[in-house]
Specification:
This protein is 39% helix and 23% strand. The relative contact order is 0.14. The longest helix is centred in the last third of the chain and has 36 residues. By secondary structure, the protein is α+β, with helices and mostly antiparallel strands. The protein is built from eight helices and twelve strands. The protein has one domain. The model has no long low-confidence stretch (mean pLDDT 82). The strands form three sheets. It has a five-stranded antiparallel β-sheet with strand order 2-3-1-6-7, covered by helices on one side. A five-stranded antiparallel β-sheet has the order 8-9-10-12-11, sandwiched between helices. Strands 4-5 form a two-stranded antiparallel sheet. The protein is globular and about 65 Å long.
Length: 314
Amino acid sequence: MDIITFECRTITKIQMSGAKLKKYEMRASSIKGVMRFWWRACNGQLNLKQLKERENAIFGSTSNRSSFTINMITPQDELNNFVVKFTMTKQQVTCNQEVIFDLTCLKSLFEIVATLGGLGMDSRLGQGSFEIKKCIINDVDIIRHRKGVDLELLDEKIKIISGTDNLDHEYSDYNDVIEYYESLELIPSIRLIEILEVKPNVRPYSLLKDIEASILSVQKEDRKSYIKQGDPKLRSTIVFSVNRVGRSLQVIVSTINIVREREIKDKLYELALKNPSSSEKNILEKNEKEITQYKRKGRDIQQDIIEYLKGRIE
């Protein structure tokens, strides 16, 4: 069985616990949950049926064993460092005679988690960010070069996870933004990744305060309606992660597709197909206009948050 080990170091505090809420505890199940989320976010090209089928094959379900196990090693006297050890229980995972997951995919997925996400509470606000110091595959050290986030390399990892080279995307002129075109399904996939450089001598704690202030800079009703899509149970559609480059910091901002608008649009199309009268088509067009306005307003607010944060940290 293939084994891959990651030696990691925290950048911002990880707030994770078990049954004893006040006791710090790194949990394998929590790490697998974060990996599930980012695997879905990298697979916006799938429909919901394909997504569920592949996710169950990789991460396991009530009727299927996971393709890998996770062991955590956290030294008691050194909480800023931890080790995550993955053991592949299957050399390859196939779905409809297609290889959809292997050791390379697992490595790329955990590196995406380290770059774009975090672990524990408030990980979408930059808490729980960490970096990979060393990667060991079957007792062979893999050298890592920490020179900041390379968007082209990040894009390659997303392609490895999704298993396709046909992800529609484009880079900005400044090469600090990559934009993926929206999924046609109700999947919270990645839409935008942007790198924000932080001015020198800013400490992680101060940076987290700036990130929180950027979210609070928009009106409360707008945060409810657009950032959380009108549902208090939904998570924010913007994910902040903190990366270290030498002695400096970077903020990686990932914008997730708003799925509410897709749900509305699907219902409207279903209505139009069942009752293809001219009046209902007019209703459909009217609602699609409202959805477009909703989407534009949501993106404007997301951009306002990012611009506010830029003004504080750059």
